[in-house]
Write a structure and sequence with these properties.
The protein has 888 residues and is an alpha+beta fold. The protein has eight domains: 2-130, Rossmann fold (3-Layer(aba) Sandwich), CATH 3.40.50; 142-187 and 488-580, Topoisomerase I, domain 2; 191-246 and 396-414 and 431-467, Topoisomerase I, domain 3; 262-386, Topoisomerase I, domain 4, CATH 1.10.290; 655-709, no CATH class; 713-769, no CATH class; 779-838, no CATH class; 857-886. It has 25 helices and 33 strands. The strands form nine sheets. It has a six-stranded antiparallel barrel. Strands 2-1-5-6 form a four-stranded parallel sheet. α5 runs antiparallel to α16 (537-551), α8 (262-273) packs across α12 (371-386) and α9 (277-289) crosses α12 (371-386). The protein is globular, with a radius of gyration of 33 Å. The chain starts with a strand and ends with a helix.
């Protein structure tokens, strides 16, 4: 017997079918050991010795694996083909050696990029040893992350109360988001005007041209700065004669995009499907582990954590075949396309993400998949096929136009493009984070010296006012792209890094844009002030490159740790005696534009608006950070961060947003102790709703307020239980609720639009993640009331097969018993036997037993007097929580 170890039970089940009875495939359920979250898990003074711990669940699985290995002939480690997968194999091997389960049994390591029979059997035929340099790179990364987190976080807690944690990659990603927000705040809007001429060709075709030159001066995008100048130019053009000076057409080719890597998949799934990075990886994991296709579970895509852009030769041949069949031979390029990998470490540059069998068309797979899986599979399939298609041929045309009137001259330009052959664009075009430019327009035929006339419309010559806009906030897609460009993080870390920032309340999502919370901005400002080197982009990227060199066996992992720790520990020692007042002074300076925004009247934004002689400063309290007056307690002026005291109602009181159309009551925006909130009416206990993370008081209107006040919102009835599912926003963010079970949603917007399918899926994922298993299965058959004890008896289908249920007793049906043929008599016998065996007493009928039950309850209540005290404490906590929610 050969024992094979993989990560997940789904993979284990599928692979066992491929390998046959000579193999026993067991799952480790991911990592089996981890560094305990306490000081001393990594010890620099002991040459970076590391302590590992095994939790109870992993211990049980490891015992089962050890027992199986002792009775086997060979151990095969078949975990994922990346750094984390190599580490899991190494951990399992270390534990088995400690348990002395191996003795002299051979140990082999196999890797496969897809869960298909061919890939599995080929991997089994080509085993190797554990890749020690890859494990060393994992150990170095874990040690670095631990040392940064467990050294910096306590410093944050002492010097910046309310901050939760810092991390090697996490803090740099947060800095990117915060730096972009600071850039937006510093941005000064500039007015500019554009001049457009709507003209007609000799054939009557319309063409629009933009001014590029006036009176011999080149006109750039921002060169016309005021209405007076724009009006003068428009007046001249309204009487001008127009003539085509030149027409230039250039054929160009647009090549297809490379197949997906982890980061490009996350970016494109965000743009086209609206998936968060974590959701993309969860759906991709299910596609990788496989779907049931006609009775056989088959992996549908290759491994989804990769830097590589190349695909296997057989996949290229298959793609070319599909292209010829589905689109025609003219869409198949003369030679196969090959893409070069951008990965810095060839050992980890695996094959790109692609379907395992490209002949499985998305339309044929849809019936085997849920909606998310089907959409992501289609995206991956299209990208892979398009990568091997013919280039698109595009003709770009530029028309230069002369205009003259009264001795003055101007030049205009019209640009456009025509697709002569669509090539890969017939199937796929990458999503964009910005709008298409004007070159995507098609121009009518024109020739040199052709006379053009103004269109007979009211504004043949347009003078349009514009204002420059600040750079956009990052989306998850653009942040991942930026991190990849800078070399920060790796494919397996992007999703978890973004999720950590949201879990820590450092950032919030609003309309898919990442907005830093005040807490996140304070942490970033603190690190920039006192640990600047360790949140620098180049420093973090250089460290990633060193980790790649470790895995390539070019650097010793402990040498890298020694160099890092020497400087890092010294930097921490330097600020041990730093006073909180010094920290606040530094934050006041670095976050001045955010903490003390310009009031617009020329006054000093740091002067207290109440007492007029106090200085405003950042204050840090038990409920978070705020701005307060230096004359406290004589002056008790306070306000939220990032406001000037007027927009959020701190000075002027409630702001009326409008009236509720149903009740006619005023809907107001207010600011309380815990931030801005909206309120309906002025009753003794009016309905209130706090503004969720990422929603600013300045952007609130009546529509948004009414949406908040309408929560919680009923989504529908659960298809299995028939009980209602609702959506709302709570202390820990947006959620769906069903029968006492909460499941988080990706963002606030989902609360208002989530449908029943998405809600049920979120609840199922939460149940699986929390270890509570699946929801109670729906009844296959209802037999009626128990003849002796009362209470319904049903037949259900469970994880280990069909069973009969009565109250808390579940009795498995004998093998080969048809659930639909079970009778009441059989069910009663099975329940009685199970009750006797387990020692459980079947639920009695609730008849005459009511009085004793009441006595027992009374007696119990009388004997547990301390419980009343506990109840009082709970009541106080509940009242406090309610006060926080209501912002009083």
């Amino acid at each position: 017997m050969n024992v094979v170890i993989v990560e997940s039970p789904a993979k284990a089940k599928t692979i066992n079918k491929y390998l046959g009875s000579d193999y026993l495939v067991l799952a480790s359920y991911g990592h089996v050991r981890d560094l305990p979250p306490k000081d001393g898990s990594v010890r620099p003074d002991e040459d970076f010795d590391m302590s590992w711990t095994v939790d109870a669940k992993s211990q049980k699985r490891l015992n089962e694996i050890a027992k199986a290995v002792k009775e086997s002939d060979r151990l095969i480690l078949a975990t994922d083909p990346d750094r984390e997968g190599e580490a899991i194999s190494w951990h399992v091997l270390q534990v088995l050696r400690d348990k002395k389960a191996l003795k002299d049994k051979p140990v082999e390591r196999v890797v496969f990029n897809a869960i298909t029979k061919t890939a599995i059997l080929e991997a089994m035929a080509n085993p190797r040893a554990i890749d020690e340099p890859l494990v060393d790179a994992y150990l170095a990364r874990r040690a670095l992350d631990y040392l940064v987190g467990f050294t910096l976080s306590p410093v944050l807690w002492r010097k910046l109360p309310g901050a939760r944690s810092a991390g090697r990659v996490q803090s740099v990603a947060l800095r990117l988001i915060c730096d972009r927000e600071s850039e937006i705040e510093r941005f000064v809007t500039q007015e500019y005007w554009s001049i457009l001429a709507n003209l007609t060709t000799a054939n009557g075709d319309a063409v629009q041209a933009r001014l590029t030159e006036f009176d011999g001066k080149k006109i750039g995008r921002l060169d016309i700065g005021g209405e007076e100048e724009a009006t003068a130019i428009r007046t001249m053009l309204e009487s001008a004669a127009f003539k085509v000076a030149s027409v230039e057409s250039k054929p160009t080719k647009r090549n297809p995009y490379a197949p997906f890597t982890t980061s490009t998949l996350q970016q494109e799934a965000s743009r086209k499907l609206g998936f968060a990075a974590a959701r993309t990886m969860q759906v991709a994991q299910r596609l990788y582990e496989g779907a049931n296709l006609g009775g056989e579970t088959v992996g549908l895509i290759t491994y989804m954590r990769t830097d590589g852009v190349q695909i296997a030769g057989e996949a290229i041949a298959s793609a070319r075949s599909v292209i010829g069949r589905e689109f025609g031979d003219n869409y198949v390029p003369e030679k196969p396309r090959h893409y070069s990998s951008k990965a810095k470490n060839a050992q980890e540059a695996h094959e790109a993400i692609r379907p395992t069998d490209l002949s499985r068309l998305p339309k044929d797979m849809r019936r085997f998949l849920d909606d998310d899986q089907a959409r992501l599979y289609e995206l991956i399939w299209k990208r892979t096929i398009a990568s091997q298609m013919q280039s698109a041929t595009i003709e770009r045309t530029t028309v230069e136009i002369e205009a003259s009137a009264g001795g003055r001259e101007a030049a205009l330009r019209a640009t456009g493009s025509v697709i002569r052959f669509d090539g890969f664009l017939a199937l796929y075009q990458e999503g964009r984070d910005d709008e298409e430019d004007e070159e995507s327009r098609r121009l009518p035929p024109m020739s040199a010296d052709e006379i053009l006339t103004r269109q007979e419309i009211e504004k043949a010559i347009e003078a349009n006012q514009h204002f420059t806009e600040p750079p956009p906030r990052f989306t998850e897609a653009t942040l991942v792209k930026k991190m990849e460009e800078l070399g920060i993080g790796r494919p397996s870390t992007y999703a978890s890094t973004l999720q950590t920032l949201r879990d820590r309340d450092y950032v919030a999502l609003d309309k898919k844009r990442l907005i830093p919370d005040d807490k996140g901005r304070l942490v970033t400002a603190f690190l920039e002030s006192f640990f600047n080197r360790y949140v620098e982009y180049d420093f973090t990227a250089d460290l990633e490159e060193k980790l790649d060199k470790i895995s390539a066996n070019e650097l010793n992992w402990k040498d890298v740790l020694r160099d890092f720790w020497k400087n890092f520990s010294g930097a921490v020692d330097e600020i041990k005696d730093l006073r909180v007042a010094q920290v606040i002074d530094a934050l006041n300076e670095i976050l001045a534009a955010h903490i003390f925004p310009d009031r617009g009247d020329g006054s000093n934004p740091r002067v207290c608006p109440v007492c007029s002689n106090g200085q405003l400063s950042l204050k840090i309290g038990r409920y978070g950070s705020f701005v307060g007056c230096s004359n406290y307690p004589e002056c008790r002026y306070t306000r939220q961060l990032g406001s000037n005291g007027e927009e959020d109602g701190a000075s002027d009181g409630p702001t009326v947003l409008g009236q509720d159309p149903e009740t006619g009551l005023d809907v107001t925006l207010r600011t309380g102790r815990f931030g801005p909130y909206v309120q309906l009416g002025e009753e003794a206990k009016p309905k209130r709703a706090s503004l969720p993370k990422g929603w600013s008081a300045q952007a609130m209107d009546l529509e948004k307020a009414l949406r908040l006040l309408s929560l919680p919102r009923e989504v529908g009835l659960h298809p299995e239980t028939g009980k209602p599912i609702s959506a709302g926003i709570g202390r820990y963010g947006p959620f769906v609720l069903h029968d006492g079970t909460y499941a988080n949603l990706d963002n606030v917007d989902e609360v208002f639009e989530v449908g029943i399918n998405r809600a049920v899926d979120a609840l199922a994922q939460k149940a699986a993640k929390s270890g509570r298993g699946r929801a109670t299965p729906a009844a296959l058959k209802e037999l009626g009331e128990h003849p002796d004890l009362g209470g319904a008896i049903t037949v259900r289908d469970g994880r280990y097969g069909p069973y009969v249920n009565h109250g808390k007793i579940n009795a498995t049906l004998p093998r080969d018993t048809d659930p639909q043929s079970v009778t009441m008599e059989q069910a009663v016998e099975l329940i009685a036997a199970k009750a006797e065996k387990s020692g459980k007493k079947p639920a009695a009928k609730k008849t005459a037993a009511k009085k004793p039950a009441a006595k027992k309850t009374t007696k119990t209540a009388a004997t547990k007097k301390p419980a009343a005290k506990k109840s009082t404490s709970a009541s106080k906590a509940k009242t406090k929580a309610k006060a926080e929610t209501e912002n009083e």
